[in-house]
Amino acid sequence: MNRNGDTRQPGDSPAGLSIRESWAEWFDRHSRTFFIAPAVTLILIFAIFPTFYSILFALSRVKFSTTGLRFRFVWFDNFYNEFTGSEQGHFLGRLEGISIFGWLFILVVLAAVIWWLYWSFRKGTSWVGMTGRLISAAMAIFVAFLLGSTLLSGNLWGTLLTTLFYVIVGCSIQFVIGTGLAFLCSQPIVGKNFFRVIFFIPLMITPLGVGYAFRMILDVTKGPFQPFWKFVGLGNWAWSTNAWAARSFVVLGDSWQWIPFIFIIMLAALENVPRDHVEAAQVDGASSIQIFREITWPQIVPVAVTVILIRMIEAFKIVDLPNIMTSGGPGIATESMTLHSYFLWRANDMGSSAAVAYLLLILTVVVCASFFNYVVLGQLRKAHA
Amino acid sequence: MSDTSYKFEKANRGLLERLFEPPAIGQMSPVAKLVAYSLLTFWSAFVIFPIYWVVITAFKDAAAVNQGPYYIPFLDFQPNLDAWRVLLSVDPFCDGYAIVRQFGLLAHNSVAFLLQPLVHIEPMEPQICKIYLSFTNSLVIGVAATALCVTFGSMAAYALARIQYKPKFGNIVIFVILTLFLIVATSFFDIPWYVSSSVALALFFLLARVFGKRFKATLGNGDILFWMISQRILPPVVVIIPVYMMFQAVGLLDTHLGLIIIYAVANLPIVVWLMHDFFASLPIELEESAQLDGSTRFGIFWEIVLPLTGPGLAATTLLTLILNWNEYLFAVFISTSKAQTMPIMVAAKNAGERGILWWEMCAIIVIMIIPVIIMAIVLQRFIAKGVLLGAVKG
Fold first, then answer.
1. Comparing A39-48, B10-19, B54-63, B359-368, which segment has the lowest mean pLDDT?
2. Would you call B66 and A222 a contact, using CB atoms and an 8 Å cutoff?
3. Chain B interface includes A35 (CB < 8 A)
4. Do residues B15 and B30 both lie within one domain?
5. Domain locations in chain A?
6. In this structure, are residues B301 and B282 in contact, taking their beta carbons and an 8 Å threshold?
7. Which residues of A touch B237 (CB under 8 A)?
8. Distance between CA A356 and CA A292 in Å, rounded?
9. Does A188 contact chain B (CB < 8 Å)?
10. Contact indicator for A320, A207 with CB cutoff of 8 Å
């Protein structure tokens, strides 16, 4: 401060310029802060703070009053309600009367998980790794229990399993078809760029538009496939009243939209595979299946698992398609957890809404972290080794 | 060697071999070609058909939609412009300056919001007809959010690629504890949010200054980068209820500014992730020589680094723009009428008393997807160069 005052002697330099210079210097000196501060501030205020604030909502009963919101702290009541209380049927599904197949399935998964834990313990996994594996194992057993007591016992399942259904079935279908199309497009074919542009388009169309377009197209009486439905004797069938048909059609719309994402990245990965390796193998008389399995696949696996991970993260957020195609119906058959939370919010039950949202966050993090640790990291290590 | 060259000579091969084996290295066999082209054609049809159906439905009238499927315009049914006439009906406020006025409205209302604690400026009401309102809302919000997001995101990404940061672990703990105190104080003890947040912020800087030097454990750039990117895992529905409450408290509900901020935050992880990769792959020598010449850090970033990442920056911008344009969940919570975006307007057509007005809805969807398809074709050329691939591998 003093030194600054000393340098600004009268006659030394024009005072205004000197001040402006020091202002710019000050800005430059602190540029490391200014570069990162806006992004960090935005994330802290609008992502981290709300995440913490959400805990409070999830642990309270919230009421509107004239002065604003009234919070009444109820500990884990909202969560108990989802797991064992009146919301159980909605969130987890109906859990009574587990059939023999259900028990069998649960026991098989239990045994597999315990064997896996024992095996990783014997391999000398660190205690951090063991903790992570215990969490993954608990989640796997819980999901197996839900599957055994709902699907395999003929009971309806809830929004948690519906979300997982969208994620697992949707991602698998999208990955297989997307990679297949990318493989076809990486072959020496004419019009590659044309197909590339066409296949890319659905990704960019608003999910809302996709939902309405598929609702129109799948309409049994007015849609374009009406003659087909009539021909197979389903002229009066409303697929929106059949749980499995509705779920499959939501996955169909989701796949239409997201296959391009897998396609475009896998295509870029396939084109990065050195051409001469493949041609050398062809000269040696290898069949195309052998070439794919032995040469191409090992080189694209790291990208493949990463792209599945990214797709999974996005798939957990699915809301537009079920909301528009079926509004979550029939009953709750196509309701994803985001949609569940949205419906609760609309019914002014903010506590439960936040609780479901938090459970979705936990589910997403556990599943994605498990996939990252056991699949993606392993493949990346193998690729670098 | 002689074996293999023998194999590829046409005269020596039977019909089956000719069908199933490639005629030369690097080509496909006839059967494989047939299978590949039919699969690709089938998939093209599967991709195009829904879009085609939406487009022709936009030119149908109620009868053509409700009486059953009509496939080809002019042969099956007579296309008409009913839906478009309803949507684009003449309105005193529908003129060429609508978009300019919308940007003016955004500027005016943002200034009014920022000066709220000092002076009260009456916010402007949008004076515009329905479809233009949604369209310009979407445009204004999309462009502004993208600009904000790409600017801040690439600044942060550049900083993380070039400058070493060492946030103290203890400071983060202090921050988290103070945040929790702030939340409890505001919710249960009825302290106004501006008082409690200023106190919490002041306390944070005080405590960080006092205790900061004692904390030894620090995090690195990798941790910050991971933290930023991992925000993408956060389902929007987790943050939306608190964000709704925050916006309600400061009067940002159903405003452009509110949606712009929340869209920018939602897309920051993608921008940081993609841009970090481009910046990290640039040679550092250029920047070092510029630094020797006396350029400021911001000058280097603005004049040297950003132009070098041209294609990557363009791809990231387009991607963000498209994501903002299509966003639905935040819009459905935060915008109701004045800041209503296109997706909300499409969904609103569902709630009418006369059932779904498919033709009008399809006309709006067509308006929505035309700019996106153009952008997608442009974007596809960037992505084809492996722009996204580098990020995925990294």
1. B10-19
2. yes
3. yes
4. yes
5. 2-58, 156-384
6. no
7. 317, 319, 337-338, 341-342, 357, 360
8. 43
9. yes
10. yes
Read off the CATH number of the domain in which B389 is found: 1.10.3720.10
Return the ∠ at Cα A364 (arms to B258 and A314), rounded to 5°: 60
Same domain, B124 and B236: yes
Q: What is the pLDDT averaged over residues B302-330?
A: 86
Res A6 pLDDT > 60: no
Structural domains in chain B (count): 4
Contact A90, A159 (CB under 8 A): yes
Residue A310, chain B, CB below 8 Å: the answer is: yes
Q: What pairing do the DSSP bridges indicate for beta strands A60-65 and A68-73?
A: antiparallel
> Looking at the structure, do residues B203 and B65 belong to the same domain, yes or no?
no
Q: Distance (Å) from the C-alpha of residue A188 to the closest C-alpha of chain B?
A: 6
Tell me: do B362 and B244 sit in the same domain. yes
Tell me: do B9 and B41 sit in the same domain.
yes
| Among chain A residues, CA nearest to B160 | A36
Own/partner pairs for A129-134, CB < 8 Å, 24+ apart?
Answer: A132/A369, A132/A370, A132/A373
For A356, the enclosing helix (H) or strand (E) is: helix A350-371
For the cut 50, the answer to whether the pLDDT of residue B1 exceeds it is: no
In degrees and rounded to multiples of 5, residue A76 shows phi and psi of -100, 25
The number of C-alpha atoms within 13 Å of B381 and in the hemisphere containing its C-beta is 7
**What domain range includes position B36?**
1-54
Q: Which residues pair with A73 in a beta bridge?
A: A60
> Is there a single domain that holds both residue B62 and residue B197?
no
Which band of pLDDT confidence, cut at 50, 70 and 90, is reported for residue B146?
A: very high
Could you tell me if residue A317 is left (phi over 0), alpha (psi between -120 and 50 degrees) or otherwise beta?
alpha
CATH topology (fold) of A156-384: MetI-like fold (1.10.3720)
**Residue whose structure tokens are 């059932």:** B355
**Environment class of residue A61 by beta-carbon count within 10 Å: exposed (0-12), middle (13-18) or buried (19+)?**
middle
Task: Look at A151-155, A159-163, B84-88, B148-152 and tell me which has the smallest mean pLDDT.
Answer: B84-88
- pLDDT one-digit tens code per residue, A11-28: 444 444 555 567 777 877
Q: How far is CA A381 from CA A296, A377, A384, B204, in A?
A: 18, 6, 5, 41
Tell me: pLDDT of A353 over 60.
yes
B4 and B31 inside one domain: yes
Quote the CA–CA distance of A35 and B155 in Å, as a whole number. Answer: 5
Interface predicted TM-score (ipTM): 0.85
Phi, psi (deg, nearest 5) at residue B285: -60, -40
